[in-house]
Amino acid sequence: IFFFFAVRDNEIHEKLHVKSLISTLASQNPLRKLILEPLDASSVTRIVGEMTGCSENQIESLAKIVAGKTRGNPFFVIQFVGRLYDEGILNFNVDSQKWEYNIDRINANVISLLVDEIEKLPDSAARILQMASCIGSSFSLSL
Q1: What are the pLDDT digits (tens) for 12-27?
Q2: For residues 141 and 34, what is the distance between their CA atoms, to the nearest angstrom?
Q3: Cα distance between residue 81 and residue 52, in whole Å
């Protein structure tokens, strides 16, 4: 049997049941731990290139900014590039058949991306998140 699960290192200490599960599994079977580091600038450049269909040379300056803003987190890289498109900062020029972007307009960061996503939520869900942020990383909805 092959088990695969992902957990952030900072969450292991907060959630004793995860730590207990890891200990139990490790005592009964060989356990292999893979540590995923943030993506390097080259990997971010490849992802942005794949998303746009551009060569790495064409997209290098944009990818450098994306890598810095997202700190190499693959989820945020994809979300951030999508946001640039949604805001018209990154767009496809039909006439030239090329992706174009305005680096001077890229002032957002991952925090503002998350805030914007929260603002799109219904008021009731946003209120729950506001309360939850004061409680911690886990809570019961019955609170």
Answers
A1: 555 567 778 778 888 8
A2: 33
A3: 9
The 10s digit of each residue's pLDDT in 31-85 is: 777 788 899 999 999 999 999 988 888 889 999 999 998 999 998 899 899 989 9
d(CA 90, CA 53): 13
* Of residues 48, 127, 56, the one with CA closest to residue 90: 48
How does DSSP assign 102-117, residue by residue? -GGG----HHHHHHHH
CA angle 79, 65, 36 (to 5 degrees): 60
Quote the tokens at residue 86: 């949604």
Q: What is the pLDDT of residues 83-134, one digit of tens each?
A: 899 888 899 999 988 888 888 778 766 677 677 777 888 888 888 877 777 7
Task: Tell me the DSSP string of 66-95.
Answer: HHHHHTT-HHHHHHHHHHHHHTTSEEEETT
- The size of the chain, in residues, is 143
CA atoms within 13 A on the CB side of 40: 1
CA pair distance 35, 33, nearest whole angstrom: 6
Query: How far apart (Å, rounded) are the C-alpha atoms in residues 65 and 67?
Result: 5
